[in-house]
Structure formats: C-alpha cells, structure tokens
C-alpha cells in the first residue's frame, strides 16, 4: 500500500509493496530469491530504454567532438553511481580528466559519509555549475531514482536554461527531472523489496544504463577497437602487458615487436599499432590526426594509400 504522503514522482521508488509483507519472517532462501528476482527485473527494465540511450549518445558525441565537457550530477546512492561511471572514463578510455566534471551533493565527503541534508539545497549545484563555467556546449548527465531530488533538479533546471545538453536517468515515469531534459531515460524498476532502498533495484538499473551510455559514447569517439580499450591509460605492469597483447591482436606482430612499438609510441596504443604495421611515427600521427584518432579509419586510410 502506498503512503498518502508521497508525491506522484516518489511513489514508484518509495512505495511499499504488499508482496514483501512479512519479509523479516521469511526463510533466508526466500529473502534471497526475492532480492534476486528484483535485481533481474532491474536488468530487464533497461532494455526498453535502449532507444533513448542511443539517441542521447549520438548528441553527446556531437557535443564532445566540439570540445564539450561531461558533467555527472546526483545525490546519495544515485550520485555515487554517477560519480563511479565518470571516474572510470580516464583510466579506461583515456578521456581527459579536465573534460569530466563530477558533482555529488555534499562533495567528496559525501562519498564516504551520509550527508542527506545537503541534497535539499537547490542553491549549491547552481553555484557550483557557475563556478565550473557550465556552457551550452557541455553535457549534463543527471541521475535520481525519484527524479525529484532538489539538488539534482536545480542542476538540470539551470543547465537547460543556458542550453547545455541534459540527459536524465530516473526510475519514475513522472520524474520532474524529465521536464528539464533533452533526453529522458526512464527505468521502470518499481517498488523495492525493502521499501525506499533505491540503492538496490533502482541503483542496479541506473548503473547498467550509465555503463551502456558511456561505453557507447566512448566507442563512437574512437576509444574502442574490436572490443579493446585502445585509449586506456597505461599506469602499471598489468596494463603494459594488456597493451602489448592488444597491439599483437590488432596487428599480428610478435610480443617483442609490439613492445618496441609501444615504447616508440610512448605507450599510445593506437600509435603503436600503426608503427607495428610498418609506418613511421610521424606518418602514423599524421594519419591518426586526419581520422580523428579513430584507429580503424586510420588503418583503412593507410591501406588505401598502399594501393
């Protein structure tokens, strides 16, 4: 039964379900099976959002190609998931740190401690967005289970007012966030097993959607080749070995040749691949630059020039 005190935008994520009445008296197996079923439903909920994620990705890519930045914004559990996705872009895809802006209600401290009160302050995100010079060329990805969190809502209102691209992810079809968004990603996870605990099913669906969106964006920007992270930041021995393996797989050269090519390319995997294929570093850099640093296009260009 839903509480009469909940707003329409909160009911889908905050409501109680009679299905779980007496949960605390169930067997351990029954509790776990119910949680599993809820998680499975969360996964399934993302499928209907695929067309909207695809449309959003196309415009995000267009903005980022024109020097736009990616802003991730949220509060509480949703904010943590947004921040996690944004943090992974640099090590995984080499996405420039200065082109990712991470905002969570309460700042970095909120990632370690619960700071629920700050998410009600509408002035904080606007002030921060102004300090970070959010512009019409930037992209804002906002995440909120209810879609009504004051901190996140104020951020998207301001972002839309100045013409930034706004993509909102929420678990309520009537999310207020959607009124101020260019792209609306609705994830219909419904009531939680533990009422209102949106870190669970809602959070699972949000994480999947965020992963899918950012992966498609980075792939379209040329940071993935044959399912390989060809723009990753090489920061340890494990990643050096992975980079050598990538160059080998893409070019067919020996491990020794791949290692040499990476050394000459200063650990730039795309550049190393072209060097391993027999091209000079200067020529490889030139052709990659002409092709937006998209490896497949660069390889095709060089093969055409051989003919």
Automatic annotation (TrEMBL):
<dbReference type="InterPro" id="IPR046348">
    <property type="entry name" value="SIS_dom_sf"/>
</dbReference>
<dbReference type="InterPro" id="IPR001347">
    <property type="entry name" value="SIS_dom"/>
</dbReference>
<feature type="region of interest" description="Disordered">
    <location>
        <begin position="1"/>
        <end position="20"/>
    </location>
</feature>
<keyword id="KW-0456">Lyase</keyword>
<dbReference type="Pfam" id="PF22645">
    <property type="entry name" value="GKRP_SIS_N"/>
</dbReference>
<protein>
    <submittedName>
        <fullName>N-acetylmuramic acid 6-phosphate etherase</fullName>
    </submittedName>
</protein>
<keyword id="KW-0119">Carbohydrate metabolism</keyword>
<dbReference type="InterPro" id="IPR040190">
    <property type="entry name" value="MURQ/GCKR"/>
</dbReference>
<feature type="domain" description="SIS">
    <location>
        <begin position="60"/>
        <end position="223"/>
    </location>
</feature>
<dbReference type="InterPro" id="IPR005488">
    <property type="entry name" value="Etherase_MurQ"/>
</dbReference>
């Amino acid at each position: 039964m839903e509480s009469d005190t909940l707003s329409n935008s909160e009911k889908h994520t905050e409501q109680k379900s009679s299905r779980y009445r007496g949960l605390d008296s169930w067997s351990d197996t029954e509790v776990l099976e119910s949680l599993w079923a809820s998680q499975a439903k969360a996964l399934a909920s993302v499928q209907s959002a695929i067309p909207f994620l695809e449309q959003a990705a196309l415009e995000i890519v267009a903005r980022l190609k024109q020097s736009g930045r990616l802003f991730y914004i949220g509060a509480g559990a949703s904010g943590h998931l947004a921040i996690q996705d944004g943090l992974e872009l640099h090590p995984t895809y080499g996405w420039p740190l200065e082109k990712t802006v991470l905002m969570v209600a309460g700042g970095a401290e909120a990632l370690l401690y619960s700071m629920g009160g700050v998410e009600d302050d509408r002035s904080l995100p606007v002030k921060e967005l102004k300090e970070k010079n959010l512009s019409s060329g930037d992209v804002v990805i906002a995440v909120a289970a209810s879609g009504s969190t004051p901190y996140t809502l104020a951020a998207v209102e301001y972002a839309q007012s100045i013409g930034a691209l706004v993509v909102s992810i929420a678990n309520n079809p009537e999310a207020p966030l959607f009124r101020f968004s260019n792209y609306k990603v609705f994830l219909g996870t419904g009531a939680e097993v533990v009422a209102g605990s949106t870190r669970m099913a809602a959070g699972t669906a949000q994480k999947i959607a965020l992963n899918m969106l950012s992966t498609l964006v980075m792939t379209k920007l040329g940071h993935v080749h044959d399912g390989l992270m060809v723009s990753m930041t090489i920061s340890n021995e494990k990643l050096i070995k992975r980079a050598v393996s990538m160059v080998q797989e893409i070019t067919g050269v020996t491990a020794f040749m791949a290692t040499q090519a990476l050394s000459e390319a200063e650990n730039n995997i795309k550049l190393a691949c072209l060097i391993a294929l027999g091209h000079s570093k200067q020529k490889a850099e030139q052709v990659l630059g002409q092709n937006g640093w998209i490896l497949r296009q660069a390889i095709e260009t060089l093969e055409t020039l051989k003919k």
